[in-house]
Amino acid sequence: MKNLHFIYYLSLLAILSQVITACNSCSKQGVDVTQDLYVPDSVIEVAPPQVSKAVTEQMMQNISSPVETAALIKGLKIPFNKNFLASTKQAEKFNTNFEKAFALGLYGCDLGYLNMYEKTSFVVDYISTIKRLADDIQVGQFFDFNTLKRLATNNENLDSLILISQQSFNRIDNYLTETNRSMLSAVIVAGVWVEGAYLSSRVAQISNHPRIRETIGEQKTILSFLLALLMVYDKDPSMTKLLDNFGKIKKLYDEVKITYEIGEPEMVEENGVLTFKQTDKQIIQMDDELYQKLIVGIQELRNDLLKL
User: Which structural domain range is residue 205 located in?
Assistant: First the structure.
């Protein structure tokens, strides 16, 4: 399984993948993101659980990048389908900061899918929705939305769009940690994973390609890392409810068997440089019935969470 390093949260999923890595770009540059910014006490966690950076980074490095999924979908010549995406009209249903953080991850994933297919006509609407959600949880100051909208209408500037988005989410992650709201970062990541898995499940219904099947199966490993991260905050009532929602899909994934065969390293030449390439093999075991149950389970999870 390939590592992420936010990412990538999909060509603008690129956007949301960087939320996942514990990046310290703001502190390294000596930027005090809390200066002159008032955050109400009601949105600050009191003595939140602490997770060491080493543990967090290890978790994040094992959560696959949604960009990989988006690239896979497009690489298989699967046509763009707007019906795969969550309607921005549903964003109004999210009321609490917890729910809005989840939605921020979800719509960020959709934004990456749109950009991977260069559907700029829809991008501005999703950027506007993300702006509202970000403002509501007091992190909108980390987005240069005017620049994002301008770049989104020009495919030639896609790389710049991704870079700016990644930087924005890095700062959000850092800021939420500094203001004792690290749980919201974890919830954003959950939103990204749910929507990324959902997109894969929709493709699985129209393509029998073995790589799609493998992608669905390997979510078992990714889900285990995500749940470990979310469990840190299981004393929070909203998190308890979210974890309950994951219960059914986790039980299904418990039936998936994943084993690994250690292969001999091979020496290959890349760009004129000799390097060693690992040949380890991942073997995912699940029958067709379980595969179909996973597809349905992922879609039910996502649709239930959209009804929050």
Answer: 9-216
